[in-house]
Write a structure and sequence with these properties.
This protein is an alpha/beta fold. It has six helices and 23 strands. It is globular, with a radius of gyration of 22 Å. The chain starts with 6 loop residues before the first strand and ends in a 20-residue tail after the last strand. The C terminus is likely disordered.
């Protein structure tokens, strides 16, 4: 492993791989990508639907094909898989855990591109029993990608973000129809007529205003899901099912920054960056979904490439220095990217915001609870 790269990229998803390719075009070859999974490519590796590649490779392709294409764009010698960053020190030393043991890297710059993770059952404060077949979308996609049989036939899907409908489509491909999709709000979180899509294409219903309270095991079999208890305006009731799939509610994967105060933005809970993708630590940059809840793979790849350009300028002595001024947000605005402006450096960051409340009237059928990118 290269212990002294000019740039260490943490995360081998679309943002990290796009950054690595961009560094190559800028003539910066001393680059190392570390990826904790056994293969680079990120979340698209487990998404079989042909919804990737349209806006960056200009043709539709499945998630695994999209991830493979990004891997082909990067020298495999620059990617270290099964490698996890365990600590980033203030002096710039980065400790990683590898199959051969622990190592300490001394990069000149670090780009955090660790992406997102779904909130677990525990984080959502759902009580009840602890049977099998309670999983997230990511776990479901892994089962499908690995060719394993799905050990259930009547799941309940919790959530109505785009990923919830993606999970339901994957289930449909295996002749499994959800009993229901539960949404605590008054409308689907995904864009478009999600409820109509669920009813006509997926042949299931979205139950609005229904909050999941508990998961119940089958009488006499604590390992089997028997039902879920939900609460709505009409009271509490049980819905029979044999699995529970938690979808969405993505949060940025910023655990690698946990020992560095001030590098996480309070509104988004993602990495805090200025208009050049630089965090308050001048040697650490961030791009992709580690900045916010979730955007598309192509969006993240564009950010990774833009951050690589900013780092290349930095290494070349351009755009460095200047006072950092945080941007305060209030009212319905939940997060803003960038979250600060620095006194120098070319602006490579497209301004994006998200609202804490729906941005359309109550009479409209759907809205994204988290708002939408804007500029």
């Amino acid at each position: 492993m290269n212990l002294t790269p000019d740039v260490l990229i943490v995360g081998g998803g679309p943002a990290g791989l796009a950054a690595a390719r961009q560094f190559a075009t800028r003539g910066i070859d001393n680059v190392l990508v570390v990826e904790r999974e056994a293969e680079a490519g990120g979340i698209p590796r487990f998404c079989p639907h042909p919804t990737f590649g349209v806006t960056d490779f200009f043709r539709p392709m499945s998630g695994p094909s999209y991830a493979a294409l990004w891997r082909q764009n990067v020298d495999p010698a620059k990617i270290a898989t099964s490698t996890t960053v365990t600590r980033i020190a203030r002096d710039g030393a980065v400790t990683v855990s590898t199959p051969e043991g622990e190592a300490v890297l001394l990069p000149r710059r670090v780009l955090i591109a660790t992406g997102i993770r779904e909130r677990s059952r525990a984080a959502r404060l759902v009580s009840g029993d602890r049977p099998r077949n309670v999983l997230t979308t990511g776990a479901l996609q892994r089962l499908i990608a690995e060719g394993r049989p799905l050990p259930f036939r009547r799941p309940v899907v919790v959530g109505s973000e785009m990923i919830a409908f993606s999970a339901a489509l994957s289930l449909r491909d295996h002749a499994i129809r959800p009993v229901a999709m539960l949404e605590a709000g008054e409308r689907t979180v995904s864009i478009g007529p999600g409820a109509l899509f669920a009813r006509t294409v997926l042949r299931t219903s979205v139950l609005f205003g229904h909050r999941l309270l508990a998961i119940n095991a089958a009488p006499g079999d604590a390992a089997a899901v028997d039902s879920v208890t939900v609460e709505s305006a009409s009271g509490r009731r049980d819905i029979g099912c044999d699995a529970v799939i938690f979808t969405g509610e993505f949060v940025p994967e910023t655990s690698v920054l946990s020992g560095l105060a001030g590098l996480v933005a309070p509104g988004s809970l993602g990495a805090a960056v200025d208009q050049s993708w630089r965090t308050p630590d001048a040697a650490i940059y961030a791009a992709g979904n580690v900045l916010r809840g979730v955007e598309t793979a192509a969006w993240s790849a564009r950010e990774g490439a833009a951050a690589a350009d900013a780092i290349a300028d930095d290494l070349g002595g351009l755009g460095r220095g200047g006072r950092r001024v945080p941007i305060d947000i209030a009212g319905p605005i939940r997060l803003l990217i960038p979250s600060a402006l620095s006194g120098s450096g070319r602006c490579r960051c497209r301004c994006a915001w998200r609202a804490a409340l729906p941005a359309i009237s109550r009479s409209a059928p759907t809205a994204r609870r988290s708002g939408a990118p804007g500029g």
